[in-house]
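hiii so um. not sure if this is the right channel but i have a protein structure encoded as tokens and i wanna go backwards to a sequence. like what aa goes where. can anyone help
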């Protein structure tokens, strides 16, 4: 078993995240990057904007990562044995672009209740302070949801540019990962990330999120896949398991799932962003 150790669970409970956790080999991480770059070449723009979501529905490579035993063992230590995959997102920061992620709490606009869920950020490339790794405000998950300003900045990788103001950077901790490692973070921990100042891309494949089977979606409809255990509550419809890379029938289901997700992301918002 590769469950989290007692020490790692204590760290997560105290800080709202835990890292680094070794889950993939460098070859497996490179295979994900190759899959991304193959899609980008053959289907330009397909995995940009809203298309960066639910990519496990159109590629067996991404889907298999979501079902990785080491990842699921670690996730089980936090949310228990009945685990569903409710979404995936590619967070890509290209070299020489101005992408950043403002400080926010995932639970603010995502509609997943109760908070028996955890986000797995899997490093496809190294992720460090130079290329804009995530920074966590340790212990912030113990507080209530904060006010977020909806800024819709052009370079913000978040849907609405949702921003918690006045986070003391000096109190935040960088989540430094090598390709193939992952971090797990809590639905209410305050986190964000800065610019990529390196000459290469920074890529995170993010399972957003693994949810316990007792977690409902209160803002709309999501498509899930069973990862482990039993679906005790049967709240959600199931997504397809991809038949191949960009298979025709998978693309139809993918488009439907992304449209529903967009309704959740912009529920109550005055306008839509590019994701
Ligand atoms: O990739 C990033 O820099 C931020 C990702 C993020 O906010 C998340 O996974 O919740």
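sure thing!! here u go:
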């Amino acid at each position: 078993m590769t469950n989290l150790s007692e020490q790692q669970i204590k760290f997560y409970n105290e800080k709202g995240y835990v890292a680094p956790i070794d889950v993939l080999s460098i070859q497996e991480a490179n295979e994900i990057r190759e899959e991304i770059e193959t899609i980008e070449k053959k289907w330009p723009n397909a995995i940009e904007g809203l298309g960066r979501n639910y990519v496990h529905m159109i590629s067996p490579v991404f889907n298999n990562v979501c079902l990785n035993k080491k990842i699921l063992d670690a996730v089980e230590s936090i949310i228990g044995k009945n685990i569903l995959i409710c979404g995936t997102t590619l967070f890509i920061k290209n070299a020489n672009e101005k992408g950043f992620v403002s400080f926010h709490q995932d639970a603010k606009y995502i509609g997943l209740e109760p908070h028996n869920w955890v986000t797995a950020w899997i490093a496809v490339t190294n992720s460090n302070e130079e290329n804009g790794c995530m920074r966590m405000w340790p212990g912030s998950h113990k507080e209530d949801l904060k006010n977020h300003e909806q800024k819709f900045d052009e370079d913000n990788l978040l849907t609405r540019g949702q921003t918690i103001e006045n986070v003391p950077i000096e109190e935040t901790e960088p989540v430094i990962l090598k390709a193939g490692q992952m971090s797990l973070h809590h639905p209410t921990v305050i986190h964000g990330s800065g610019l990529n100042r390196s000459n290469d891309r920074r890529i995170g494949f993010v399972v957003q999120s693994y949810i316990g089977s007792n977690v409902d979606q209160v803002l709309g409809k999501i498509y899930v896949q069973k990862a482990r255990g039993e679906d005790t509550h049967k709240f959600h419809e199931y997504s397809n398991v991809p038949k191949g890379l960009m298979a025709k029938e998978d693309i139809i289901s993918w488009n439907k799932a992304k449209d529903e997700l967009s309704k959740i992301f912009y529920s109550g918002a005055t306008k839509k962003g590019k994701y």
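oh and The chain has a mean pLDDT of 96.
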